Amino acid sequence: MNRQLLAFVLALIVAVSLAACGDEPAGDGAATPAAPSSEAATPTDAPTAPASPAGPAEEAAALYSANCAGCHGPSGGGGSAPAIAGEDDPDSIREQIREGGDGMPGFSGSLSAAQIDALSQFVADKLR
Ligand code: HEC
Fold first, then answer.
1. How far is CA 116 from CA 58, 108, 126, in A?
2. What is the whole-number distance in angstroms between the Cα of residue 23 and the centre of ligand 1?
3. Which of 52, 62, 85, 124 is most deeply packed, by most CB within 10 A?
């Protein structure tokens, strides 16, 4: 009786541990590469996304120095052209950058729409 019970328990333990061993590598093996690879993709994407918004802001500052500061002053306080610090309507700024006029060249031919957008935001947000 005891022996039979012992044998049964041992058989059960062996069966369970075999089943567990059989399942675990398959289950973990399938899940483990999938999870880290998708997690690895997310941190890779995450720094890229915040880097892009930071990038255009820095790019806009560089674009301003290169294209605008000569006339409007390094911080928009004016120079040979009127001050633009305090301009806070990105739409009219964007229009002015695109079309120019009254002594200001238009930039629609030399800057991309995205660059002009970034510059408009820069002038509206940063030049005060
Ligand atoms: C060659 C000189 C020159 C350059 C370069 C120049 N501007 Fe101008 N800008 C002017 C002049 C002159 C005016 C005034 C136009 C007027 O009286 O309507 C002006 C007007 C503006 C205005 C409108 C100001 C207002 O009171 O409505 C904005 C905004 C502006 N410029 C932004 C820029 C930006 C941004 C850049 C760079 C992409 C730039 N400008 C480059 C000469 C320049």
1. 13, 8, 15
2. 70
3. 124
Work out whether the CA dihedral 100, 111, 50, 127 comes out positive or negative. negative
Beta carbons of 122 and 87 less than 8 angstroms apart: no
Task: Return the domain boundaries, the chain.
Answer: 2-126
Structure token pair of residue 30: 């399938």
Is the C-beta atom of 67 inside 6 A of ligand 1?
Answer: yes
The token pair that represents 105 in the structure block: 């060249």
CATH number for the region 2-126 comes to 1.10.760.10
| Biggest CA pair distance of the chain | 107
58, 98 Cβ separation under 8 angstroms: no
CA–CA separation, 127 and 104 (whole Å): 18
Distance, CA 116 to ligand 1 centroid (Å)?
Answer: 13
> pLDDT digits over 20-52, tens only?
555 555 545 445 455 555 455 555 554 444 444
More confident: 42 or 115:
115
